[in-house]
Amino acid sequence: MAGGASGPPLAAAVSGAGGLGFLAAGYKAPEAVRAEIAAVRERTSRPFGVNLFMPHPIAADPSAVKVYAERLAAEADRYGVPLGDPDGPADDAYDAKIALLLADPVPVVSFTFGCPDPAVLADFACAGTATVVTVTSADEARAAEEAGADAVCAQGVEAGGHQGTHRDDPLADGTGRGLLTLLAEVREAVRLPVVAAGGLMRGAQIAAVLAAGAAAAQLGTAFLACPESAASEPHKRALTDPAFTRTELTRAFSGRPARGLVNRFVRAYGPYAPAAYPQVHHLTAGLRRAAASAGDPQAVALWAGQGHRLARPLPAAELVGVLAAELAAARAAQAAQDARRAQDVPGGAAS
Description:
alpha/beta
């Protein structure tokens, strides 16, 4: 969860409790990533992962970004901050972060917004690092398998935050697959282990995706409300605030489709936001920080999955335990139901 939520305290707490915590390297300088890796190692000896953003080719229309900036001028006045420079870094220091993680390997590295070159994946394999590529379609999963990834993470459209599509095509907005459909399609397309992600908030949901063939489940929004999460307080409160009635995919804050709670900013600017990532991300960065500092959730990117109302503000380790217990209970209930059905079928108990 890039943007600060998924830092060392949360990643270490999840790993220490038996999960696989992840650091978000997106939007951070390489030295900051190095420091956070060291901080996790100080907190736990358990395995953890690091997530990287793939770099984006510059394809945005500068005139569309300029028009959007003019529309946002009123927000700059409202919060007393200048708009950011849309021509900020576009590659998120990808090469430097790759070099860092190869020089000082971690157990798992995952990738969002695309698939690395086969040579990069081979280098990680030689370093003993498992690689996971986020996919939103069977075609993306095939590309990841052909490139040499160890696993794929199937991200359903229910997921909070950015959709991890390998190519940002505005004509494809609104066509994302639900998790269970995507999971089935990806499992039929590749032989790699598939991690399921998108809208998962309870142990029973984890049981469902495991029963559908997933090798593991990935949860994000479920951990946003934890005290170890570095999400802003307005963001944490909004997850269960009845004033926020729904989520939607929007380009308003970053120029790329991302699922968040619908607030004033999304309603006012979502229809006009251009397909321009990371230009719009840089443009709105100061506005988002100012709104969060003011405790105003109406101009914060309140990234959240569709299950946000089920968020529980528990310590992360406790939440891992609760989810594990719910998963065990769901599996036991299913086993009992299967046994009863077998007894109801003539000859079933003996077969």
